[in-house]
Fold this sequence. Notes:
The chain is an alpha+beta fold. It has a domain at 3-171: 3-Layer(aba) Sandwich (NADH Oxidase), CATH 3.40.109. The protein is built from 12 helices and 5 strands. Strands 1, 2, 3, 4 and 5 form a 5-stranded antiparallel beta sheet that branches. It is globular and about 55 Å long. The chain starts with a helix and ends in a 5-residue tail after the last helix. 26% of the residues are buried. The site of flavin mononucleotide has 10 residues, from strand 4.
Amino acid sequence: MSVARSLLNIIYNRRTVRKFKPVDIPEEVINMIVEAGQRAPSYNQAYSFILVSDKEKRKALEEICDAKYISNASTMIVICSDLNRVKKMFDYLSRNHVLTSDEYPVETIYSIFETGLATQNMVIAAEVLGFGTALLDCALVEAERVATLLELPKGVVPIGLLCIGEKDELPPKRPRWPLHTVFHKNKYREPNPYEIANYVEESSEMYDQEGYLMKYAGIPMKYKDYLVVKTERTKEVEKRYEKLSKFLKKAGFKI
Ligand SMILES: Cc1cc2nc3c(=O)[nH]c(=O)nc-3n(C[C@H](O)[C@H](O)[C@H](O)COP(=O)(O)O)c2cc1C
């Protein structure tokens, strides 16, 4: 098999893995994965990756993330958008630069975009090396607590938690929108109601067939019903978002 074909196979067949074997990954391997992240296209390399190896900190992070459904991840890396270092670089270059104000709207979008690109390179590098990964949003949802735990300065925002480990499960491939729904030609094509309904029904059925919610969260619920609950605009969600918005604003991340 050619290198190109085998890399495509890895990409097409990757699944999020949440159950790992309790096996350590050598530091050199983690370095290789992070270095692959750095090779992603980048505007300002506005990211930082924080390996949480300290036992106490790792325990605290897992508590913050309520990550009981992730078993035995050998490595946890907090993925951060980092405009702190970029600002320092711009300060070095000139007095009058785009980050001199307290808010960085456009740079925020760039930094999140390039942090995502780097993260995906890390995910694929881990797969190429035979490991599995799970990306969690808890680092963003609980950004303030994660920032305190990891002593993040202004301008550094945790946006994800990357768990890496030796796979101890091979879940089925999860659903995706049909290619023609996401891939437009020359102009945007509105999805019709039938496509939306079809996708919701079929993808939910796939998650139910996997036993997804029961397996990872112990929730005896149909995936479609769970989606309704998960996306509901409750008072509690509004309060959480308000808190997060305040933290992001303080960090200079304002879109
Ligand atoms: C921004 C982002 C946040 C995510 N957050 C979580 C999470 O908190 N917990 C989790 O189990 N999976 C999380 N995931 C993983 C998705 O659930 C997973 O990618 C999706 O179900 C598709 O499955 P697949 O990766 O196996 O194709 C997240 C993925 C992304 C990109």
